[in-house]
Design a protein that fits this description.
Elements (H helix, E strand, L loop, with lengths): L1 E3 L9 E3 L3 H9 L24 E6 L1 H4 L1 H4 L20 H10 L9 E3 H5 L12 H4 L10 E7 L4 E5 L5 E7 L2 E6 L5 H4 L4 E8 L2 E8 L8 H6 L4 H7 L9 E5 L4 E4 L4 E6 L3 E7 L1
Parallel strand pairs: 4-10
Antiparallel strand pairs: 1-2, 1-3, 3-5, 5-14, 6-13, 7-12, 7-14, 8-11, 8-13, 9-10
Length: about 280
């Protein structure tokens, strides 16, 4: 499963099932010089051939067990980390679910179930409770692989699990914002309607996009001189505190549950993430 388009928040973003060799030839070798159509401003529109292709969040190691031998699970993934901090979005969402006050209903689907409904995205529906073993021994983490050219983008979002992101090949720029960053600065999305074509015609699904920010950080990076325009679009965001790093080959980054993070590929590369 390959994501085609600059970011899953963009109009025209989609997914394709293609052979791995075709993915490499079409999207990786084409971008071997480190450039991308996205960097030139046309990664959001145009035909598929001119867009970025990203094998994102796919359980590749289960699909090809031989590759699993190359990856060692960090010992940290077998500890019991603290839950989300009180007052943060993940904490509040779990509290509402415990209290039975969730907004979910028959028309509301999980964001990743609706937007990323291929088999590779099924892991999003696994809960921590489902993964804990009855013996008290921590279950194995959810392991996913990410392969793509330069300028692959994961827009600013947060996840419901603790995460260790490992850079196997290449490098990625990562920016993180505290889960305590006010909503007035981070600008989370809300419930959005997605239309889907099926055998019975077109159907509509409401999806919870509250774990993803409205802010287009890639656009801000490409045009920092347009500061006034970005301030008008997303008031207060440019004043929000953040930390940043470049994750190089062989390095790992721990991202606590609920931390907002934006990830951009600097070179063609391979990453592996461990959720627990």
């Amino acid at each position: 499963p390959v994501e085609v388009g600059r970011s899953y928040t963009d109009e025209g973003w989609g997914q394709r099932i293609i052979p791995f060799g075709e993915f490499v030839d079409r999207y990786l070798w084409r971008s071997a010089d480190g450039r991308s159509k996205a960097a030139a401003g046309d990664g959001q529109h145009g035909d598929e051939e001119s867009q970025t292709g990203y094998m994102a969040q796919h359980d590749l190691l289960a699909q090809i067990p031989e590759l699993r031998k190359d990856i060692a699970v960090p010992d940290y993934c077998y500890i019991s980390p603290p839950g989300p901090e009180e007052g943060t979005p993940v904490y509040e969402k779990r509290r509402r679910e415990r209290d039975g006050d969730s907004n979910a209903n028959a028309l509301v689907e999980d964001k990743d179930n609706a937007l990323r409904d291929l088999a590779s995205r099924g892991n999003h529906k696994t809960t921590q409770t489902d993964r804990d073993s009855d013996s008290g021994v921590p279950a194995d983490p959810i392991i996913n692989t990410w392969i793509g050219p330069a300028w692959t983008i994961s827009p600013l979002h947060h996840d419901p699990y603790h995460n260790i992101l490992v850079q196997v090949v290449g490098a990625k720029y990562i920016r993180l914002y505290s889960p305590h960053t006010p909503a007035s600065q981070i600008h989370p999305r809300g419930y959005e309607t997605v239309r889907k074509d099926g055998e019975d015609g077109q159907s509509e699904h409401k999806i919870d996009m509250s774990n993803t920010s409205k802010v287009d950080l890639a656009a801000i990076e490409l045009s920092p001189a347009e500061s006034d325009m970005w301030e008008e679009m997303w008031p207060g965001f440019q004043q929000a505190d953040y930390v940043e790093t470049v994750l190089q080959e062989g390095e790992c980054l721990y991202i606590p549950v609920g931390w907002w993070h934006y990830v951009r590929g600097l070179r063609a590369g391979v990453s592996v993430s461990f959720w627990w």
